Amino acid sequence: MSEQTAEAAGAEVAVVEDERNLRELYVDVLSARGLRVAPLESVAAATAYLSRRAPDLLILDVKLGDGDGLVLLDTLRGQGLRTPVIVATAFGTVERAVQALRAGAADFLVKPFTNERLVSAVGAALESGRRWEELELAAPKIEEKKASGGELIGTEGGLKDVAALLPRVAASEATVLVRGESGTGKELVARAIHRASPRMDGPFVSVNCAALPSSLLESELFGFERGAFTGAHARRKGLIEAAEGGTLFLDEIGDMSLDAQARLLRVLQEREITRIGGREAVRVDIRVISATHRDLDAMAASGQFRADLLYRLAVIPIRLPPLRERAGDIPGLIDHLLEKHAARQGQRAPRPDAEMLRRATEYPWPGNVRELENFVARAVVLGRFDTESLRVTAQPTKAAPPAEPVPPHEEASAPTPPSPESSSVPTLREAVARAERAAVIAALKAAGGQKTVAARLLGVSYKTLFNKIHEHGIREEVHIA
Ligand SMILES: Nc1ncnc2c1ncn2[C@@H]1O[C@H](COP(=O)(O)OP(=O)(O)OP(=O)(O)O)[C@@H](O)[C@H]1O
Question: What global pTM score does this model have?
């Protein structure tokens, strides 16, 4: 806890442990590091203590004389407790640990543990609590700029109808739900609607619901009042209020927790919000456009997404087709993207030849227009099309079945792409990528699809896991399978 001790000195740690010896051990070890320790022997004592005080860290035994620590943790989180929690358990199974992390624990200790393990877990949890506070209290990361965005190119697969519909959709105040695979242009469409709407001079606030753990997403969206939780030293407006007079774009809405969904439903019904920890309702004038690549109907049928919210979000549903369903649009898109990137990079665009166009239209583009755009941007930098990458990566290997394609541009951008002759022997880069992908999928499965939990199991940050999921093209079904 060396560096962290300085941060943590004087921090208050509440320890709920029914075994006296262990309680005393916590007090001895942690007080020696300059922490203030409140020993509590039961669920009842913990409940009474927490109703009066908000410690900086809570250490919670699972099996307590008068109850279950995880049930207590669940209740406390439900009541809005934001304090980081370490769960200590003698039942060192992965299931129990996963359960603890799912209930919102920052870490878990398997008994018996060493003093060093205790000290390092406490240091890290206090540090993460501090970082979390900083994150919460930092100036809001609001993307409040006017919506910029390109033209919607293409006509195939129903895109022509979408383009024809946009002006009417823009003129209305109706909520819009844009569905489509990743990279099909959902955000592009949302921005186009905003730009053509009477709200065009207002902000376009884009929020990626999958990029933040659910508790953070709620406070980002709804804001909070001073004292709503530890570290909420000042009132802060949320992103919904920041979108006042403009458009709120909720990307990856299928990743929103059920709690946040319930709050959002109230916003849509009543056009007002209540900040976290607040009582006063604040009126808001926003238009909501949301997007998802998930099957929200199936999620609603299985109770993972609120059906009543889905109806309200999808007053105007728009489906964007994957690029493989509109291969005829590919040459036009290539021209458009070449112009865009050549202008941006101040370079001359290479000219596409017939062979490249043939391969490009046959290639399935699992990353859709975004992948095509990366391919074109790379061509502008290189001064030539990396046609070979389309051929190599268009043939999925056994390790990357079509159901879960790995975005090929990752491999295509490798310094030494694998040669066709060596396809039975993976390069080290490929082998590492496969192992990494398998580990991410295994962790997501073990964590029941909860990314916060999976990230902890993998020993990486939430953001790293999020990036890896995208990098390896792991589909959402895998998360919850
Ligand atoms: N029809 C299109 N015409 C021109 N550019 C497009 C088109 N569709 C997508 N793009 C471009 O492709 C890139 C990805 O699009 P966008 O971010 O809108 O996709 P998305 O569906 O929101 O992706 P994700 O679900 O991963 O967030 C952007 O740079 C966008 O401008």
Answer: 0.58
| β-strands 272-274, 316-319 pairing | unpaired
Predicted confidence at residue 172, as pLDDT, reads 92
Find out if CATH 1.10.10.60 is the number for domain 426-481.
yes
The CATH class, in words, for 156-319 is alpha beta
2-18 pLDDT per residue, tens = 434 434 567 889 999 99
CB count in 10 Å sphere of residue 168: 11
Query: Where does the chain hold its CATH 3.40.50.300 domain(s)?
Result: 156-319
Counting ligand 1 atoms within 8 A of each CB, the residue from 160, 188, 209 with the most, and so the one to mutate, is 188
Q: pLDDT category, 42, cuts 50, 70, 90?
A: very high
Assigned CATH class of 2-137: alpha beta
- Cis-peptide, bond into residue 112, ω within 30° of zero: yes
For a ligand 1 pocket test, name from 253, 318, 370 the mutation site with the most ligand atoms within 8 angstroms of its C-beta: 370
Structural element, H or E, at residue 1: none
**From CA 41, how far away is CA 49, in angstroms rounded?**
11
CA distance 50 to 72: 11
State the ipTM, two decimals.
Answer: 0.98
Nearest alpha carbon, ligand 1 atom 12? 370
Rg (CA), the chain: 25
* Ligand 1 binding pocket includes 405 (Cβ within 6 Å): no
Residue having the nearest C-alpha atom to atom 9 of ligand 1: 185
In the chain, residues under CATH classification 1.10.8.60 are 326-392
Q: Residue 100, Cα to own-chain centre: how many angstroms?
A: 20
